[in-house]
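Quick illustration, no need to memorize.
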Amino acid sequence: MINKSKYNYKFQKENAKLIGKSLFKKGNFKEAINYFKEVQDYKQDWEVLHGLAWALLMENRFVESIEAFQNSTKLCKNWKSFQGLGWSLLKTNNCIESIRFLRRSLELKEDWNSYQGIGIAFFQLGNNSEAIMHLRKSISLKEAWLSYHFLGRALFNSRNFINAKEAFNNSISLYKQWRSYQGLGRSLLKLENYSGAIKAFDNSLNLKEHWRSYKGIGWALLKTNHYLESTSYFQKALDLKKDWVLFQNSKALKGEWNSKKNSGTILYDSLGKALLNMKEYSRAICAFESAISLDDRSSPKLTNTLYRQLSEAYYIRKQEM
């Protein structure tokens, strides 16, 4: 004799699983979570937990996705669950553990997404050589814009600017993302292709306004002796960075700052250089003084350069008075 209540439950469970999977494939992750949780309330099922975990990951609910993946892998050692766990840990900046579980996934099945995650994790840890190796392995299995993007960043950090430029171009050919344009612009700056750099930064700004892109254009203009134009771009960069001292007028620099000091130091140093070349000595002095006030002294060479430039600006202004 058939137990109808048990039969109805099994039917409802399988139906909820199918609907959850269908919603996930359609990108409706919130609704998928609801259906997967409906099943989970009654019985621990690794496939349900697996689907729930991926839906949570896609919704940026990383702590919850980590727990769901952990529970899923206890029930079944599935490579995709280990991969998802690795990515969830990566999203919470737990790079060491992320690498461990992504490698566990690779032991079960080779997949480009696991190599990509390991490459990004090593990049975040500052190990550019390992990042480059794993990202290139990922690309050999499948070309993805994110792999090329982080490959470009790792190559840039390794001062391999030619290959960084190529990686960023490949990333852009797959997906036009503002950070990739910005990375391309920075690479072209290092290669002294200033017109190309300006074009890349402009493309980045068309997608998203960001202070680094304005700073990049300012640097390209500074390097090509367009001093007045460069100051306007450094000004825009400073105006976007509210936590730095703002360049408010031609005579004074004032405001407040936070812990991200040396980025502000370099930006004010750039502005000071442009003003110095324009013979705007008082404004240059203000810029160099602001750069010094933000300097965290992590680079003795930069600190010495700032004081030398400040002294030079004071000396020239005194000679011309």
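The chain has three domains: 10-92+104-109, 110-208, 210-321.
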